[in-house]
Write a structure and sequence with these properties.
By secondary structure, this protein is α+β, with helices and mostly antiparallel strands. It contains ten helices and twelve strands. Bound molecules: coenzyme A (COA).
Length: 339
């Protein structure tokens, strides 16, 4: 029932059925999240950064009256640096029958044979995935809070004040599509600052800190149908990027954007840059993406200053979001031999 699957060459029926399963999962587990659309779904599942690979599996059941089979399970593992990051989706109708264990066993075995020794997963708090991953021996390593901002609840007047409230000597620049080539080096330098901070997370999401990799990562976003928007704070005297904030509008759920990194470089803290770049971003998104209704973001609970700014902008805490990790050999022993 479970087979390896390549979204690049998948049939339209398979993709549509996979999408139906994904949306059934969202309705069951995250009913306030927007449903996904088919737009760029194939590319979203198939495209990766250079040097990274994603391997996928499907589980199907026979269709009614000779119709095409229906997808009841999907798994994929992203081979990223020195970790395999697994995602599992089981249709609510097909749960508690051991399918996730079976799919995880296949993904774990393949990842192990690819030479990896660690496996990780992002898990949404308050969903069955917490019990599932704990039951197979994964350990919670890191916790973030997801917050959501509803654009129709924004106080645009005070947001305007925040966008203007930046210290003298800085200017803001809006870059739809990503930073222009002449700012790429300065942008990468500012992003490198984030790499220095070891906040204990498992690095399950790809990040890029050198100009070449950054360009490749922006290209990859575009290929996957995820449109990046960036607001930069430029220090006028030096031309340095003093701060940046990144939002991505995915073609798969264009009513809800994802807020990615926001960075204010150490030497430029205390000038209202964080507030100003995020506030300016919301104004820009309002006109560039008229269908957009919400923005979601993830923050570590220890990051008090960022949580404070997000609360001022109108973000409201939604759910806990965990990173789980495990030793691959241990997981395989448990799944395949029950020890
Ligand atoms: C988490 C998920 C993959 C589990 O799929 P599943 O096929 O129902 O899982 P299994 O039947 O293989 O369950 C194996 C064990 O996990 C635990 N488990 C799974 N769901 C559970 C639940 N709702 N409550 C308590 N324990 C649960 C149990 O120990 C179970 O063994 P048991 O049924 O013999 O008691 C599925 O609920 C899902 O698709 N969730 C949404 C997507 C998601 O969050 N994926 C994970 C992040 S990538």
């Amino acid at each position: 029932m479970v087979r390896e699957w390549d979204p690049k060459t998948a049939s339209a029926d398979e993709l549509r059925s996979m999408l139906d399963s994904l949306n059934a999962v969202l309705m069951a587990d995250l009913p306030d999240d927007p449903l996904w659309q088919e737009s760029y779904l194939r590319e979203y599942l198939a495209e990766t950064m250079p040097g990274e690979r994603r391997i996928s599996w499907l589980a199907e059941e026979p269709g009614d009256n000779g119709g095409p089979p229906r997808v009841v399970g999907h798994a994929n593992v992203l081979l990223l640096g020195d970790i395999g990051v697994v995602e599992l989706l089981i249709h609510p109708k097909a749960r508690r029958a051991g399918l996730a264990r079976e799919m995880l066993a296949q993904a774990a075995r393949k990842t192990y044979h690819e030479g990896f020794s660690v496996i990780g997963a992002e898990v949404v708090g308050g969903t069955p995935a917490v019990s599932f991953f704990e039951s197979v021996g994964f350990v919670r390593e890191y916790t973030e809070t997801r917050s959501v901002l509803r654009l129709n609840s924004v106080d645009w007047l005070s947001l305007g004040e925040m966008a203007r409230g930046i210290g003298a000597g800085y200017r803001l620049e809006f870059c739809p599509g990503g930073p222009p080539d002449d700012l790429l080096d300065a942008y990468a330098k500012a992003k490198a600052e984030l790499r220095e901070i070891d906040d204990g997370d498992l690095d399950l999401r790809p990040s890029s800190y050198d100009p070449q990799r950054l360009r490749a990562s922006l290209d990859c976003l575009h290929r996957r149908g995820m449109k990046p928007y960036i607001v930069l704070a430029i220090h006028e005297k030096t031309g340095d990027v003093a701060g940046l904030t990144e939002v991505v509008v995915p073609a798969q759920h264009p009513t809800r954007a994802d807020q990615y990194d926001t960075i204010v470089v150490q030497d430029h803290r205390g000038y209202g840059i964080d507030r100003a770049i995020k506030a300016r971003m919301l104004f820009e998104l309002r006109s560039a993406e008229p269908k957009l209704a919400e923005v979601q973001t993830w923050n570590a609970q220890a990051n008090e200053s960022m949580l404070k700014v997000n609360a001022e902008l109108g973000f409201q805490a939604d759910r806990e979001w965990y990173e789980y990790g495990a030793d691959l050999a241990d997981i395989l022993r448990r799944l395949e031999h029950g020890v």
